[in-house]
Fold this sequence. Notes:
The chain is mainly alpha-helical.
Amino acid sequence: NPFLLKTFQNFPNILKLGNEVPPGSPKMTAVPPKKSKVVSSLSAAKVDLIEPLDGEVVLVMKDKCALDPDPAVLKRLLSPADSEDEEQRKARIQINGMVIRKHFYQLTQLFLLPFEHYFEYETEQNAHLGSNWNPYLVLPSLPRFDEAKFLASVRNHVDQFPVKGLKINAIQRKKRLMGLYQRFLRGPNFIPWFSHQQDIAKVRMKQHMRSRLCQLKGDLFLRLVCHVSLRKARLVRERAQRYYDSVKARPVADKELLDAIQDHLNTLDSLLPPTSKAPTRPKNKNTQRPYSR
């Protein structure tokens, strides 16, 4: 299929299968010990020269293997029995598939664990989860990705990850792990995956902010704003109005959120002095006004 070959001309891994062997043949084994091999770092011209033998499986890889196989997982895989029927064969394949999928899922989660920091929104004051968080003043954001800082943070991750060559020293293992992460960062899958994960985090961040705004009602919002400076109070008023307008302009209006923001605007209007009139000092020193000079 020339279209398939054109599409996958840069595919990093090529699995070559030999001639089809009927089920139940003596040549059929779960993992052929002498009829499977891995060829790495071959040029595209040499790949076509590899011809698998009968029942042989050849995996041609663009990169060298970076991980060691887990013996505990290999021992859990079921081998075919001599008198295996079709139903037993399907059950064995299903069980082996579940074991392998679970293993690689856990391995993938472990590999991606250092990236979790970039999908957790934060604030400059690191108080976005606190009870005193004012979402109008302290806006949550996602950390910016820095490759150098990221690689420095994962150097100690090597002990948790099964890098190929367990008998080599720690420095070499760290070097191999850094190379593995660098290839992932420069590969075609990193940017789409990272952007998708950040989009999910942004949705979660907006939902949290909405929940917080709807929670701030009456005296709870009043306590947050009555002790801030006049400049910050006016900033809260400006941002609340801007946020109200953006929510109202949505195709489907969020009535609960609009009512909450309108309540905040009414509270601020009752506390703030008119913009055209300078605030005056209270006559009685014991009397406090929210935004007096």
